Amino acid sequence: MSSISFSQTYKTYKPERDKIHSLVHTKLKVDFNFSEKQLNGEAWVTAKPHFYATNKITLDAKAMLIHQVSLNNKNLDYNYDDASIVIDLPKEYKKDEEFTLYIKYTARPEKVQQKGSAAITDAKGLYFINADGLDKNKPTQIWTQGETEASSCWFPTIDSPNQKTTQEIYITVPDKYVTLSNGKLESSIKNGTNRTDYWKMDQKHAPYLFFMGVGEYEVIKDSYKNIPVDYYVEKEYAPYAKDIFGLTPEMIGFFSDILGVEYPWNKYSQIVGRDYISGAMENTTAVIHGEQAYQTPGQLIDENVQENTIAHEIFHHWFGNLVTTESWSNLTLNESFANYSEYLWREHKYGKLDADMHLFEDSQSYLDGQNTDKHLVRFNYVDKEDMFDLVSYNKGGAILHMLRNYVGDEAFFLGLKTFLNENKYKAAEVHQLRLVFEKITGKDLNWFFNQWYFGAGHPRIEVSYDYNTIQKKVTVNLLQLNVNEFKFPLAIDVFENGKKQDITFL
Ligand SMILES: [Zn+2]
What we know:
Blueprint: H1 2-12, E1 21-33, E2 38-49, E3 54-60, E4 64-71, E5 74-75, E6 78-80, E7 84-93, E8 99-107, E9 126-129, E10 141-144, E11 165-174, E12 178-181, E13 184-191, E14 194-205, E15 212-215, E16 218-224, E17 227-233, H2 241-245, H3 248-259, E18 268-272, E19 280-281, E20 286-289, H4 297-302, H5 307-315, E21 323-325, H6 332-350, H7 352-368, H8 391-407, H9 409-423, E22 426-428, H10 430-441, H11 446-452, E23 461-468, E24 473-480, E25 490-496, E26 499-505
Parallel strand pairs: 1-11, 17-18, 18-20, 21-22
Antiparallel strand pairs: 1-2, 2-8, 3-7, 4-5, 4-8, 6-7, 9-10, 10-15, 11-14, 12-15, 13-14, 16-17, 19-20, 23-24, 25-26
Helix pairs in contact: 3-5, 5-6, 6-7, 6-8, 7-8, 8-9, 9-10
């Protein structure tokens, strides 16, 4: 029955979240209760109605104790259900009319109940590592992990990728610890055995990109132009920090040049977190890497296992952080670009053959995976964490490579620059990428995007050759085994007397 299938499809449809309010600014003051693994927080959340006038606002706040909600020093009524706070505003606010809520709360990450993913194996937002200090082989650290919607485990916000906010964070810690957060360290003030670091970020970014890191780190200083580039590592790796992360300034410069959009943020820091739950995360200006990044010069001679990841997270600072996917359905707008940056970096640094080898390996792991029937842009996933797969990453990167070959280098990089400039500090969906490339090339690209972005799978082709020695004629037979045939650019190299001839079809 069609009505049933319609309602089933509708039920699983995952839209962009409605923008009822827009975040404007987020100010936080936090300190930590190490023994309870809790955060004591105060938040000043500035927001405004997106379009329709409203006298209520809903903020995501997971597993918190809410102590006070007020506006202009007047307490407000609210309803809290352990996942979100619905707050009664004192009047109806109109479009663009800003207000600042004050919320005093305790974040309890150990009480959070939400599912993790394959890429990110847990989701409590705020992690205390060896909080009681009992493990003598492990330092005490704190780090956060916001993606996908776990920042609301440690501060109240509208935890959706289509929101952007500027931020300030005052972090109070025992003086022996170093802190890292987004943006610039404005001040550091001692108070007895504690110290309060004040971090400020003047450019808007999505709540899932907020970050805090705390621990006994050495900070190794580097730079790109006038921009500080810092490496936060444990003492024993301090002598090797530049061996591990030292290509960072060159990568930032290369990506700035190739995109024609200068690195948009005011610093770039990388920190290594113990027991980190993923490979790395592109928190704006405050990237965290897992312990696998720790390598000694002897190990680095064989391979810097983190090099592709370092490039990947840097590139997210344009694709993901400057322009952000509006929904997890469009995640490939973040991840395909970050994946493809690994190709771009390797092509620049080590040559096309090396880059092609990397692309081949990535394509193979997509082909070997179990997900080849999934659409690149998927509105019907079961869990948003499922989007972090070899389709969004590896297939997405390969599709960008095909698009580059189809439109040509000049149009491709002009397209990326235009897409970034048109959508900077905003969220976007894949159609905006298509429209940019259509405008630049003058070509209709619906067929390309419908097939590759909004469809699934890949061509399955049987190839056979025949050479007729009398006619001196080569015949190449290509047979598509797919039920729905794919249209795609194809180049065949023909070698004659040692000379290569490229024949392109489409
Ligand atoms: Zn990524």
